[in-house]
Amino acid sequence: MSPYFSIIIPVYRDLGRLKSCLDKLKTMSNSDFQLEVIVVNNDPDNPNLGLESNQYIYPLKEIHEPVPGSYAARNKGIQESVGKILGFTDSDCLPADDWLALAFNHFSKEENQTTGILTGPVPLFYKNQYKLSDAEVYEKYTGFTTESYAKEGHAITANWFSPASVIKELGGFNVKLKSNGDSELSGRIAEKYKIVYSPNLIVHHPARYQTDELVNKYKRLLGGAYTRRFQGNHTAFRIHLLKFMWARYRFAIKRLFTLSPKESISILRVCHLINLGAIQEYHSLIRGGETKR
């Protein structure tokens, strides 16, 4: 009997948190549906994670995709999947206990396939909520706005369910993108199907602890924007960069008047480092460099 769900999880050198995610999925067994979990290892230098599939109550497939990028990894997982509904999350995420049950309740009751993506909140959690790092403070005020994103016709792959037929009809993710690939595919899906936001469909995501992680995130976002919109038009990309940098500083300046000095200075430091990284990424990209993964 084919599983109802195929849960696809790309991973890149994050084995510890991946195991926590897989353990969390153990708690979601349900007599109403079956699932398979597909872990796609995206580390070209280490093709075998050594996961012991017999430790899990669900079928676990470990496959390897050496082509860099989480979207290439997700596409590989899609190719290997056999479930009716594809679920996407990330190796560092912890879905709520009823994540699969809520998705099953939604899709199993849908007579005509009108839902293209089912998504929900992605609240952050911290290493120590009483002692936040600069990066965690920044993320506290810039976390995922999945509800407004869904209203705009988009979703993020931390918390995403789609019928397999919809994903395959649209051709999967754009492997040329290291970032914004979820925005690009969900936008195409929204042109034909509904993006449904369920406030109870929750996946917990860790706030980034190190500022370097945030700098790399925004470098990826700039790279994704360059690939999608500005390649070959350096003047337009320069204007985009200046607007990007001003948005970061404007955000930090406003927080100087609304937050405590400690939090506002943390945000200002992070924004300044993000902008320095953005300048470095701009010069790398216009000289033909690869976008960050």
**What is the straight-line distance between the termini?**
37 Å
CATH superfamily of the largest domain: Spore Coat Polysaccharide Biosynthesis Protein SpsA, Chain A
User: How many distinct domains?
Assistant: 2
Beta strands, count: 10
Q: Any low-confidence stretches, pLDDT <50, length ≥5?
A: none
Strand content: 15-25%
| Rounded Rg | 19 Å
Please sum up the structure shown.
This protein has 10 helices and 10 strands. By secondary structure, the protein is α/β, with parallel strands linked by helices.
Commentary on this structure:
The model has no long low-confidence stretch (mean pLDDT 94). The strands form two sheets. This protein has a seven-stranded mixed sheet with strand order 3-2-1-4-8-6-9, sandwiched between helices. It has two domains: 5-129 and 142-206, Spore Coat Polysaccharide Biosynthesis Protein SpsA, Chain A, CATH 3.90.550.10; 211-286. With 293 residues, it is an alpha/beta fold. Helices cover 45% and strands 15% of the residues. The chain contains ten helices and ten strands.
Strand and helix layout:
Layout: E1 5-11, H1 15-26, E2 35-41, E3 60-64, H2 70-80, E4 85-88, E5 94-95, H3 99-108, E6 115-119, E7 124-125, H4 134-140, H5 146-151, E8 160-163, H6 164-170, H7 181-190, E9 194-197, E10 203-206, H8 211-230, H9 234-255, H10 261-286
Parallel strand pairs: 1-2, 1-4, 2-3, 6-9, 7-10
Antiparallel strand pairs: 4-8, 5-10, 6-8
